[in-house]
Amino acid sequence: MGVMWLQFIAILLFLPHQSREQEINFTLPEQLALFLDRIGDVHRLQAISIVNSRDSISPDYLDGLHQQLRANASMHFQLLPQMTATDVDVHVCFSALQDEDTLYVVFARHSRDPVIQLQAKRARGRRYSKTLFLLKEHESLPVLGEFFKLLWQLQFRSALVVTAQRWAYQMDPYPKMKIKRMKEVSSYDLEEIFPKPNRKNFNGYELHLAVQLDIPNSFWSRDPRNQQLRLDGAGGKIINELMAKLNVTLKVHPLLVNGSRWLNMPAIIDLIASNRMELSPHLCDTLQASTEVDYSYPVRLASRCFMIPLDNQISRTLYVLLPFQWSVWLSVLLILLVLHFFGVRWLVPDSQLWALIGVPGWRLSRSHHHSVLNTVTCYLVLFGVCLIYQLYSTKLTSFLTVTLSHKLPSSLDEILRLPFPILALPLDVELIVGTFGHAEEFRRMFSVTDAQTFATRRINMDTGYIYPISSFRWFFYSVQQRYLKTKRFYFSSLCHGTFAAQFQLRIDSHFKDPLHRFALHVQEAGLLLVWMKESYQSARLGGYIQEFTSAEEFLDDIRPLAFNLLAPAFSLFMCGLLVSLVVFLVEIRPPSCARRSSRNSSSH
Ligand SMILES: *[C@@H]1O[C@H](CO)[C@@H](O)[C@H](O)[C@H]1NC(C)=O
Ligand SMILES: *[C@@H]1O[C@H](CO)[C@@H](O)[C@H](O)[C@H]1NC(C)=O
Ligand SMILES: *[C@@H]1O[C@H](CO)[C@@H](O)[C@H](O)[C@H]1NC(C)=O
Ligand SMILES: *[C@@H]1O[C@H](CO)[C@@H](O)[C@H](O)[C@H]1NC(C)=O
């Protein structure tokens, strides 16, 4: 019992003394060196990078620090190679030199020191690494608040700030940014002294999303439960699900740029680069990558092709000629001429072939005899003529029951000969000409327009233009015309590129890694296609797309009674009338002429 009391008193006496002794301040370079050494040891860091701005630290202190870091053989960073960079303008990123297990030490004069921005630029791709900011002066709490907000915007996720060489601060940004003063740094577990760079639970952190229309990837709809705006679309669903998983609260705001609701990628990039938006929910084909933002991994790959108005129906008046090819028509004509001039006129003038076939003007005479050969040849020819006639009439009747169309233009030359202009955005023009060449011909065809006109015309399937479109989007848009008998558009087989559909994020965004992992799962599970099909319904309910079922198309469905079928029948009837009239006129030619011809034939 006595021993225990003694121990207790000893502990009481010993504790404050010990903690005061362990409290760290960095007034001496040895103290900082020792602290860095322990951090390096605990976190098994491979490299250290020390950055300072002018006047933020005395040269003696810096010398001392370097010496201390290398002097002692037991020091963790002792054996590292040393490199000194002085030029501010060198555009080398740390990620090219060091791996991610690096400790960054930044000496700055105050919280607005440009070295912070410089560090952010240089540490692109390494901002989740442990970073220690040492501010020379002590800063008031509101100023520190601003500073941490900047650090959060610059995506330093694992930052520790020490002011005036002794006050240490950390931030806890979830769900509202909080600054944590760390009393007695050394009594903190060194494992936890830097915040964890990747959090799985954002505790309801509010993320403001500016959304523009990009059917089917992103649009907004009303939640039927609470009438709130919610993000929708194939890409929107990915963001919704990911954020639900991360426990992030989404605030959706429709964004108008120059009065247009439709996706304006330069404006979005600008918003992100100027730190006004953290993440863009637009899953969009990256046609021109910007270095001012980061992109997610490609969620899908698609090539861009053309959506071409379907205008290849053959006029019904031409159907009469279509059953035979031109070569067949020519040979038939040739054979008939040969038959007439060689066979009937010259070789066997009394064969009565035309009379047998029923050609008007030729009369069958009964009162004479033929050779057997003559008769057989005559009937063979007759048989051939009947055969051809049967073929013709069968084909013609079968053609009249369907709608015939030309072969679809698919090659570049054929498309360039089409009478439609290509409606496109300036960037599309560049890409298409860059891929296919033929700059002159294309330039004649292009009709360059703004995002809104382009998007609305394309989604309404406005015939009269050819539109560039990705295969994924076509898959969605073409569902609109599924009930049409004669479709409005077809998808060209002429395509270019494979373009990656990606989200745009702030550089080194907090959401980048979770998004990468999540997109991978989504892709593996094939959810993207499922979500796209689901969003078709909500896009239709939201009035963004429509299904074409016009009255004309309904008439087409009940074909036998349709008027447009009567027209060819009527024209055929008129044609028949005309032919009978001609025959009739030939039949009632002057009797003298007929008599002469019959006398001629009977005299032989
Ligand atoms: C810093 O720590 C050293 C030793 O731990 C101590 O002697 C010194 O007084 C401290 N300085 C301040 C300003 O607390
Ligand atoms: C080297 O550092 C250790 C602590 O890491 C310390 O105990 C030792 O005294 C130092 N030796 C020298 C020569 O500074
Ligand atoms: C999400 O965040 C809220 C707000 O902090 C919290 O109450 C809730 O427990 C969190 N949900 C999960 C699943 O962690
Ligand atoms: C808005 O319109 C103006 C004038 O047409 C143009 O200069 C500006 O670039 C447009 N802004 C965006 C973000 O497109």
Provide a descriptive summary of the structure in words.
44% of the residues lie in helices and 16% in strands. By secondary structure, the protein is α/β, with parallel strands linked by helices. Among the domains are: 20-187, Response regulator (Rossmann fold, 3-Layer(aba) Sandwich); 316-400, no CATH class; 563-603. The strands form five sheets. Strands 1-2-3-4-5-6 form a six-stranded mixed sheet. Strands 11, 12, 13, 16, 17 and 18 form a six-stranded antiparallel sheet that branches. Strand 2, helix 5 (114-122) and strand 3 (131-135) form a beta-alpha-beta unit. Mean pLDDT is 82; it is low at 1-21. The protein binds 2-acetamido-2-deoxy-beta-D-glucopyranose (4 copies). Residues 72, 74 line the site of one 2-acetamido-2-deoxy-beta-D-glucopyranose. One 2-acetamido-2-deoxy-beta-D-glucopyranose binds at residues 72, 74.
Q: How are the SSEs ordered, and which strands pair?
A:
Blueprint: H1 2-22, H2 29-43, E1 47-52, H3 59-71, H4 94-97, E2 102-108, H5 114-122, E3 131-135, H6 141-153, E4 159-163, E5 167-172, E6 178-182, E7 205-211, E8 219-222, E9 229-232, H7 234-245, E10 248-254, H8 265-273, E11 279-285, E12 294-295, E13 300-309, H9 326-347, H10 353-357, H11 372-400, H12 412-416, E14 422-424, H13 426-436, H14 439-445, E15 446-448, H15 451-459, E16 467-470, H16 471-477, E17 489-491, E18 496-505, H17 512-525, H18 527-541, H19 551-557, H20 563-587, H21 591-603
Parallel strand pairs: 1-2, 2-3, 3-4, 7-10, 14-15
Antiparallel strand pairs: 4-5, 5-6, 8-9, 11-18, 12-18, 13-16, 13-17, 13-18
Helix pairs in contact: 2-3, 7-18
One 2-acetamido-2-deoxy-beta-D-glucopyranose is lined by residues 175, 201, 203-204, 247.
